Amino acid sequence: MMRSCYLFGRLFILVACCFTLNNLSAQSKILRGIIKDQHSDERIPFASIHFQKSGAGKLADSAGAFTFRFENWPNDTLEITYVGYKDYKVFINPSMAKSDTIHVVANMDRGKYAAEVVVRRKIDRGLLMWKRIVKHKPANDRYRFDNFSYELYNKLELDLKNVNKEKLGEIKLLRPFKFILENVDTTEGIPFLPVYLTEALSNYYYQKAPLRRREVFKGSKTIGVNNESVAKLLGGMEQNVNFYSNFIPVFDKLFVSPISDNGDAYYNYKVTDTQYVGGRRIIHFFFIPRRKGENTFEGDCWVHDTTFAIQKMNLRLSKEANINFVDRLSLIQEYQLINDSTWFLSKDKFVVDVSPLGGKQLSFIGRKTTTYRNVVVNDSTVVHQGAKNKLMEETILPDTAKEKSDQYWQESRHEELSKNEKAVYHMIDTLMKMPVFRRYTNTINFIATGYMNIGNYQIGPWQNWTFANVIEGLRLRFDLGTNKYFHRDAVFHGYLAYGFADHKFKGEIDGMYLFNRHPRMYVYGSYVSDFDYGQNYFDEISSDNIFALAIRKPGVPIKFVKLHEERLDFYAETNSGFSALISSRRKDYDPIRNLPPKTYFPTDVGEPMAAFETSIRIRFAYLEKFLENNFYRASLGSPYPIVELKFTKAISGVFNTSYDYSKLSGAISNFRKIPPFGNIYWNVFAGKTFGTLPYTFLDIAPGNEIYYYNRYAYSLINKYEYIHDKYAGVNVEHNFGPGMFRFIPLTRKWKFRQFWTAKFLWGTLSEENKSLNFVPEAPFKTLDEKMYMEIGTGVDNIFKVLRFDFVWKVLPTPLPSRASERWGVFGSFRLAF
Question: In Å, what is the CA distance from 799 to each residue of 480, 743, 752, 803, 831?
Fold first, then answer.
């Protein structure tokens, strides 16, 4: 009986306590909040929070969250502070409370760092912390392992920022897409419209020795873009950012890492506080650039006290950084323990505001999130996967990866899509089915690239449709070709041009058939009967477009040569970077004006100035990357030098031709980033022609007769000015980046860039070829084993698109008496970050 009373008493007290606690909870007022970076949307841990009047305060937790409880709502201002951010204030009063709980999302904007970053103590704790991190880098960098693998999930979202919903809705051309504006999000304060989303899931494998990298895609979702080369760029092979390395890639530039081995030459450091997370002591320190205008970051970092391993690092682009079109940029990396002692990368985040017209105009936000799961280190399974590689790097994108169902993505993606992200897929799918959207995109593409698809056919480029010169007068041209809808593996193209002064038609027809894309193999054939406007020598650009007329050098006569050419090529490459181009051509030249005509070069057999050539070109470009469409591709370069060798043999009597000769040439080139000193391009080339020939078949130094700068031509040499049968040369271009301009406030603000160039050419011409070609009316010269040299410097990135080159001729001496032949100013356009 007494035991029953005892149990009943305890139960009564327990129930009474529950009612009392529930009643107290009902009466209390709760203020909850989270603190985030306004740009990256990342949580800000351990921010300082206090009320201005009462003085009550606390720190946010490691997830940037906080909670306050009150008996009654206060009339007070809540202030949140954190190093590197503007103070955030919100007024709390009873009138704003519609319930017993108020939720606050504090989106903190970046601000200036406090003056106390400049350390005045004898012991610089910030510098000491940097030294400890650098000392322990070999023990914390993931590339210390013999091998590792992980499952990689990449998500890339593109948003339009500063969207004025009302104004856009009034634009007549956009009315068919008014439904899109319903997706405009204003929760971040600045209205943005999510417009594109891609996802990729892959297994990534790394092996240190021998070095092998392998990526196998399991899923790739790119609605609206069915391009394999674009899909591969979203993988881990192209986006391995390592904060422990000395330099961190940002678009086409390399920025100095805050924990670089030489970081103290570029940054100031300061330790702010320490916290305990999961029983581990972590230290918070931040960094700012020592000087303005350099490629450096500002930001902060949390470091494990014992191992000095990075737990989380936030990098933000400073306003003074020399990079174009970027309003704001955030790079975040987080690390987690995969066992008791091993920290490994768990999350990457990259957020960038690209504002071509200025920060307040319509611009773009790119958000890329990468997560790492199922990390395995120093395991035989990784070695087994790496052994499958035939090259050092291989990326495998099977067709099945592009056909995964929605159910697969729901089960496989590392994090659930947000409401906005789900809406993007629906919106893109709707747009792709709208005929008016396809018409708009085709029109924009036509203006930008010059080409437009019309059904199974393609017209363009429009830039070459109108031209004028003294021989043809007004020249009109029209191009017509097929596209991938006509045939997946075959493409045909042709143009017809007419000159209203010479009353003659000119034209070309060509075609290509692709046997294979990876590795590439094709056959190409063409017939052309037109003026030879471009030499196509060392990548010289063509000059038969409407824009070339306005920028020709005065007093330099245009050389007119009519070309009739039949051509047949076979191209094949291997996965290892070797390629071979076997070519046969019959070329028949007919100089019309300002060059010696055919009558000076009579022959006993065949047509004068006609030759039949066969050639083979061997090229090696290891790990070269390409951006491809269905038929054509553009090189993105190689991390290694590119080597090219070519041998040509001409046989007389074939198709009524006249000459026997041989040619041998070679070149090696490379483009390298050399941080922190910008980048450098160099090209070394040489060649020899065996035979006595008219000038059209000799080696003609690539000249430039317009004031548009050409990297591959000699700015102060005219076309057909120097001819040789033996030559060698070197081209060098070094772009410093801001260089000396970073020391001048105005040029630093305008982000000018500095460069220098040097071009050398050595050549000679045999006595037999001199005797044949140095005839009346001939404008030719030869270097006679002398050195030609021109050097240049200038200003790049003027208004973010213009470049001016100041070029001087240095050799050979004596220099020409006319100033325009000794030096010149050349302009060019280019878009670059």
Answer: 36, 19, 8, 9, 10
End-to-end CA distance of the chain: 86
What is the SS3 assignment for 458-526?
EECCHHHCEEEECCCEEEEEEEEEECCCCCCCEEEEEEEEEECCCCEEEEEEEEEEEEEECCEEEEEEE
Strands (E), 708-801: 723-724, 726-737, 753-764, 787-798
Under 8 Å between Cβ of 689 and 726:
yes
Chain centre to alpha carbon of residue 612:
42
pLDDT tens-digit series, residues 62-84: 788 888 888 888 888 888 888 88
The answer to whether residues 127 and 55 touch, using CB atoms and an 8 Å cutoff, is: no
HSE, CB side, 13 Å, CA atoms: give it for residue 833: 16
At 172, is the secondary structure helix, strand, or coil?
helix
- Mean pLDDT over all residues of the chain? 85
- Span 457-477, average pLDDT: 88
Q: Which of 166, 205, 202 is nearest to 186 (CA)?
A: 166
Q: Tens of pLDDT along 499-555? A: 999 999 999 999 999 999 889 999 999 999 998 865 444 334 455 555 565 677 888
| pLDDT tier for residue 693 given thresholds of 50, 70 and 90 | very high
Beta bridge partners of 201: 153, 219
Q: Retrieve residue 83's tokens.
A: 């190093």
List of residues 6+ apart from 337 with CB closer than 8 A: 343, 344
Tell me which residue of 781, 713, 724, 730 sits closest to 535, measured CA to CA.
Answer: 713
Tokens of residue 186, six digits: 């204003």
CA distance 724 to 28: 93
Q: Strands (DSSP E) along 278-322, which ranges? A: 280-289, 297-304, 310-317
**434 to 376, 455, 610: CA distances (angstroms):** 46, 16, 54
Res 730 pLDDT > 90: yes
Taking a C-beta distance cutoff of 8 angstroms, is the pair 69, 28 a contact?
yes
Task: State the pLDDT confidence band at 447, using cuts at 50, 70 and 90.
Answer: confident
Locate 492 and state its tokens: 């045909």
Where does the pLDDT of residue 266 fall: very low under 50, low under 70, confident under 90, or very high at 90 and above?
very high
Q: What is the pLDDT of residue 574?
A: 93
Instruction: For 590-623, give the DSSP string.
Output: EEEESS--GGGS--SSS-TTEEEEEEEEEEE-TT
C-beta atoms surrounding 789 within 10 Å:
18
Q: Which of 816, 792, 805 is nearest to 718 (CA)?
A: 816
Residue matched to tokens 């970076």: 37
Q: Do β-strands 726-737 and 753-764 pair in parallel, antiparallel, or remain unpaired?
A: antiparallel
Token pair belonging to 541: 């650009």
Structure tokens at 232: 């591969």
- How many other C-beta atoms can be found within 10 angstroms of the C-beta atom of residue 57? 16
User: Of 591, 595, 598, which Cα lies nearest the Cα of 778?
Assistant: 595
The mean per-residue pLDDT over the stretch 718-745 comes to 91
Residue 420 DSSP label: H
- If DSSP codes are grouped into helix, strand and coil, which group holds residue 188? coil
In 3D space, the residue among 96, 104, 94, 91 whose CA is nearest the CA of residue 53 turns out to be 91
- Strand-strand pairing, 393-396 and 212-221: parallel
Structure-token match 């990526």, residue found? 215
Tell me what pLDDT residue 236 has: 59
Give the up-direction half-sphere exposure of residue 22: CA atoms within 13 A in the CB hemisphere. Answer: 6
- Taking the C-alpha atoms of residue 742 and residue 749, their distance in angstroms, rounded to an integer, is 8
Q: Determine the pLDDT at residue 417.
A: 86
Q: Which residue has the higher pLDDT, 63 or 679?
A: 679
Top pLDDT among 515 and 339 is at 515
- For residue 766, which amino acid is it? S
The helix or strand, by DSSP H or E, that contains position 401, with its residue range, turns out to be none
Report whether 200 contacts 220 (CB < 8 A).
Answer: yes
The per-type count for the chain, helices as H runs and strands as E runs, is: 12, 42
Cis peptide before 676 (omega within 30 of 0): yes
Is residue 328 within 8 Å of residue 118, measured between CB atoms?
Answer: no
Per-residue confidence (pLDDT) for residue 544, from 0 to 100: 55
How many percent of the chain have pLDDT more than 70?
87
